[in-house]
Amino acid sequence: MPPRLPPLPALRDFIHLYKLRAKKILSQNFLMDMNITRKIVRAAGVRDGDWVCEVGPGPGGITRGILEAGASRVDVIEIDHRFIPALQHLSQAAEGRLHIHRADVLKTCVGEVWRENAKILGDDVK
What we know:
The chain is α/β, with parallel strands linked by helices and 126 residues long. It has helices at residues 11-17, 34-44, 61-68, 84-93; strands spanning 51-55, 73-78, 98-102, 119-121. The radius of gyration is 13 Å and the shape is globular.
């Protein structure tokens, strides 16, 4: 059984707590409905024990779903410094399973943070 996350504030509260707003120039959108984020994670095939690299996690909505699915390691690459405190909050709750990389994914050697058996999950999952 995947490790459970401790109770966390609702994503909407997280966004309010850290005073986050989506930036249109960065094409940011916040998925508030955890039912939708869980469906995205299921569609991506994330299972217990997987290693996942997520690009542009924002405040961590899909990241929560990935952790809930039981991924043993989640590496997130986020360029926007405003999301780092919220992701750090989530990282503490994930007890070492969430690793934050503040970087531009286009200038990052993903091979350094991504393992052979990982699944890649980004904003354009279909």
